[in-house]
Amino acid sequence: MGKIIIYEHANFKGLSKEFTTNISNLKDVDWNDVVSSVKVIGQPWVAYEHINYGGRFLVFEEGEHNFVGKDMNDKISSLQLITENLHHPQITLYEHINYQGKARVIKEATNLGAGHDNDIMSSHKVQRGAWLLCEHSDGGGIQYIAREHENLPNYKAINFNDKLSFLRPLRPGCGC
């Protein structure tokens, strides 16, 4: 399904450790706050700043990531495998809370910042896949992972109301 190999240093140097299931606290395996590069085979993984999948996060899709970035270097404390079927993704965005107002069905990466729906969405329902929602149209700012069958009636709960500018489905890996 999915595998992540974490490395102590950038460019896959130093000690390494492999995971095929979630780990809520890297301290349990003596790997807290020491990850600098990763390789992912198959499904994407999410690396979190805090234990129990909290704080800032990075999504790692299949491939080699020779540096996790200065903001998360040596700051990763938990890892979570994306288990959803990522083929044929679909999310419905709503203009107002509680799934009210204009609805928009999205099936691919979409830059809302370039259209009429920038910074107006307030709730969503995920039909299929897992989605990365971003505050800014360049993928930056506040981010949120919306997962299959998740219904989020009010973006105020995640400090995201009227801030969504870009979203994209997470890409399935081939596991090659």
TrEMBL record:
<feature type="domain" description="Beta/gamma crystallin 'Greek key'">
    <location>
        <begin position="2"/>
        <end position="42"/>
    </location>
</feature>
<dbReference type="InterPro" id="IPR011024">
    <property type="entry name" value="G_crystallin-like"/>
</dbReference>
<dbReference type="InterPro" id="IPR050252">
    <property type="entry name" value="Beta/Gamma-Crystallin"/>
</dbReference>
<dbReference type="GO" id="GO:0005212">
    <property type="term" value="F:structural constituent of eye lens"/>
</dbReference>
<feature type="domain" description="Beta/gamma crystallin 'Greek key'">
    <location>
        <begin position="43"/>
        <end position="83"/>
    </location>
</feature>
<comment type="similarity">
    <text>Belongs to the beta/gamma-crystallin family.</text>
</comment>
<dbReference type="GO" id="GO:0007601">
    <property type="term" value="P:visual perception"/>
</dbReference>
<protein>
    <recommendedName>
        <fullName>Beta/gamma crystallin 'Greek key' domain-containing protein</fullName>
    </recommendedName>
</protein>
<dbReference type="Pfam" id="PF00030">
    <property type="entry name" value="Crystall"/>
</dbReference>
<dbReference type="GO" id="GO:0002088">
    <property type="term" value="P:lens development in camera-type eye"/>
</dbReference>
<dbReference type="InterPro" id="IPR001064">
    <property type="entry name" value="Beta/gamma_crystallin"/>
</dbReference>
<keyword id="KW-0677">Repeat</keyword>
